[in-house]
């Protein structure tokens, strides 16, 4: 018997995560798991898709090496497995009679586990898939929007889907995202003033490197709050074939075949400002450029305002301390550390 009551289903997959650090016998991305070989188990409804390293076209932010191409090929295999897994979920929804009245959102938590990717605020680290399917919003089906969106938009989208008025939740929890359902019907006439925000504190407990980010269509400003420390590397990426090859090349003074050096990847300025129209690879930091003082000042103020709205405990870091208790309860202030 089917119960036609509203439901929320959150489905997550291990694919396409790395697993070479914990289960190396299954491959760098567990791409061997379930393939039927001895000790690998067997997934009967999975037809693996395999690529040769020389078939892989690497993105600009990954070293152009055989090891990286081999790494990418393994991840592509697990992406194909996840793709088939998503298909199985959709088939179950269809069999249960829910496909024609269910909002489906497909996304990810972060960018890929390669250099300049996951745990970074660069576009290569924060750009993720965002696919939405609604049986009641069909005007722009299969179309792409140029509007800036983020994971912060998902809660307002779900509230909108269930027709929950904004005043019912904004008084309790201030949400800074927007509903994405209107984008399924019409592309905004003007997106020039759009802005999104991002934050990162840590990936692993020993990787504390808080960052805050504001992005428009043209500019991005990143605040590295712990920039006096080297940028941390997570353990699964550290042991990956791609990064181990980078380390070996660095130690032997070979060409990394990469668009950065390890030194400028590890050590970053407190503020990074990029002109995304003219510098999509985010290589030229304009935060300390006199010609971009006004842009820097404006984005910094808007980022601070967002941190204030979201009650970010790191709003005053790294040079000041937030005081918002006792004497300062009604007038929170950032006080210098040398007071």
TrEMBL record:
InterPro entries per the UniProt record, alphabetical: Alkaline_phosphatase_core_sf (IPR017850), SGSH_C (IPR032506), Sulfatase_N (IPR000917)
Residue ranges constituting the N-sulphoglucosamine sulphohydrolase C-terminal domain according to the UniProt record: 245-307
Pfam families: SGSH_C, Sulfatase
GO molecular function annotation: N-sulfoglucosamine sulfohydrolase activity
Superkingdom per UniProt: Eukaryota
Cofactor or coenzyme needed: Ca(2+)
Domain Sulfatase N-terminal: 5-163
Leader peptide range in chain numbering: none
BP term (GO), one: heparan sulfate proteoglycan catabolic process
Entry similarity comment: Belongs to the sulfatase family.
The protein's name in its UniProt record: N-sulfoglucosamine sulfohydrolase
């Amino acid at each position: 018997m089917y119960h036609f009551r509203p439901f929320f289903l959150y489905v997550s997959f291990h694919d396409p995560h790395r697993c070479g650090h914990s289960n190396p016998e299954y491959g760098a991305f567990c791409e061997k798991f379930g393939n039927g070989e001895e000790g690998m188990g067997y997934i009967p409804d999975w037809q693996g898709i395999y690529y040769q390293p020389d078939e892989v076209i690497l993105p600009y932010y990954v070293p152009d090496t055989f090891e990286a191409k081999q790494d990418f090929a393994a991840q592509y295999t697990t992406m194909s497995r996840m793709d088939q897994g998503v298909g199985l979920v959709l088939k179950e929804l269809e069999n249960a009679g829910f496909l024609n009245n269910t909002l489906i959102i497909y996304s990810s938590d972060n960018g890929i586990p390669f250099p300049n990717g996951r745990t970074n605020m660069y576009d290569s680290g924060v750009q993720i898939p965002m696919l939405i399917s609604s049986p009641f919003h069909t005007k722009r089906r299969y179309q792409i929007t140029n509007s800036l969106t983020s994971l912060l938009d998902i809660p307002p989208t779900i509230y909108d889907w269930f027709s929950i008025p904004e005043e019912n939740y904004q008084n309790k929890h201030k949400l800074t995202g927007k509903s994405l359902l209107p984008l399924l019907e019409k592309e905004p006439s003007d997106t020039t003033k759009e802005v999104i925000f991002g934050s990162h504190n840590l990936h692993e407990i020993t990787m504390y490197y808080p960052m805050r980010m504001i992005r428009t269509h043209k500019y991005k400003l990143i605040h590295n709050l712990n920039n006096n420390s080297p940028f941390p590397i997570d353990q699964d990426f550290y042991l990956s074939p791609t990064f181990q090859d980078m380390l070996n090349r660095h130690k032997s003074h070979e060409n990394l075949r990469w668009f950065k050096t390890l030194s400028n990847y590890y050590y970053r300025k407190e503020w990074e400002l990029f002109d995304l129209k003219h510098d999509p690879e985010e290589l030229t930091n304009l935060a300390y450029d006199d010609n971009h003082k006004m842009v820097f000042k404006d984005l910094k103020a808007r980022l601070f305002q967002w941190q204030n709205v979201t009650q970010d405990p790191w709003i005053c870091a790294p040079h000041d301390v937030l005081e918002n208790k006792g004497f300062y309860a009604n007038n929170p202030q950032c006080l210098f550390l040398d007071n």
